[in-house]
Amino acid sequence: MDLVDLHTHSTVSDGTLTPKALIQYAKEKRLKAVALTDHDNIDGNEQAMEEGRRVGIEVIPGVEISGEWPHGTLHILGYYITKKTKSQNHLSQLQKARFERNLKIVEKLKQSGIPITFEEVLDEAGGTQIGRPHIAQVLVKKGVVKDLDQAFHRFLKKGGPAYVNKFRPTPEQAMEWILEAEGVPVLAHPFTLYIKKSKDLEIIMTKWKGFGLKGIEVYYPGHTPLQEQMYQNLAQRLELVITGGSDFHGLNKPDVDLGTGYGDMKVLYACVESLKKCRDEIRRKTREID
Question: Where are the beta strands (DSSP E) in the chain?
C-alpha cells in the first residue's frame, strides 16, 4: 500500500524539522510522496525536492495560505506551486503581516506583566519565519505555562488576551494566487470553518469552485468519521479532488505523526494521481491563455 502525506510543515514556518530532515523522516516512515505546505511561505520547497530526489521520495511543492473567514479559521492549500515570482510577491505581503502581528503579540504579553522580549522569540525561531508556536515555546521556557497547549489556551488563541488579528486574503484571492502560480487550490481541514450542515457547506463550496477551488482535504486527524464521510460525499458530488494529510509540525504538535496523524490515518497515493491530473489541466488552460 503506497501511503502519502499531503499536509506538512517545516522550520520554514512553524514546524520543528528542516525541509531536508522532514523528507528524511518521510523516508523512514516509508511514504511514497509528501507535500511541504508551509504557512504563507515556499522557501523550503527547493530543499525538500532536492532531498526527495536524493532519497527517492516524491515531493510536492506546496503552501498553506490563511484566508479571511468570519467564523473559525480558513486555510487554502496550494499544490505544485511553479511560478515562484508571482506567488512570492503575494506571499511576501502575508509574511510582513505575520511579522508585524508577532511584534504586537509580544507587546500585549509585556503589557500583561509577562517578561518576554522579541529578541527571545527571534532566538527561539533560529532565523526561520516566526510564528505563534515560537512565542508559546518562550512562554514554556520561562515557566509562564506548562506546555504549548496551555500557552495557546491562555494567551494566543483567537479571542485570547494576547491574540492579534492580521491581514488575510479573501478565499477568492487565495485561490487566485495559487492558480496564478499554476498550483492546485484545496480547502484544508474544512471542520475549522465551523459549518455543521452539509447543505450550508455545499453552497459555499459550490461558490468557491466557481472561483477555482479544486479539492477538499477529507482525511485529517481532527475530522470525526462522520465529518470525513460528509466531506467525501461533498467532494464526489461537486467533482472535487480528495486529499488528506497529518498537518505534521514535529514537536510543535507532538501527538500528530507524519503520515498517520494520531495513529490510524491512511492517505493513498491515488490522491496524488488525482492532484496531478488537476495540475496538468490547470497548466494546459493557463498556457492556452498565455
Answer: 4-8, 33-36, 58-67, 74-79, 184-187, 215-219, 241-244
Question: 268 is written with which cell numbers?
Answer: 493513498
Contacts of 2 (CB under 8 A, 6+ apart): 32, 33, 268, 269
Low-confidence ranges of the chain (pLDDT < 70): 83-87, 289-290
**pLDDT tens digits for range 246-259:** 999 999 899 999 99
Asked if 13 and 41 count as a contact pair (C-beta separation under 8 A), the reply is yes
Secondary structure letter of residue 162 according to DSSP: T
The Cα 21–Cα 4 span in angstroms is 17
User: Do both 185 and 148 map to the same domain?
Assistant: no
Regarding whether 57 and 100 lie in a shared domain, the answer is: no
Sign of CA dihedral 187, 7, 93, 44: negative
Q: Which amino acid is at 266?
A: K
| Counted domains in the chain | 2
CATH number at residue 72: 3.20.20.140
Within a domain: 166? no
The counts of H helices and E strands in the chain are 10, 7
Residues 145 and 193 in one domain: no
Could you tell me the three cell numbers for 277? 491530473
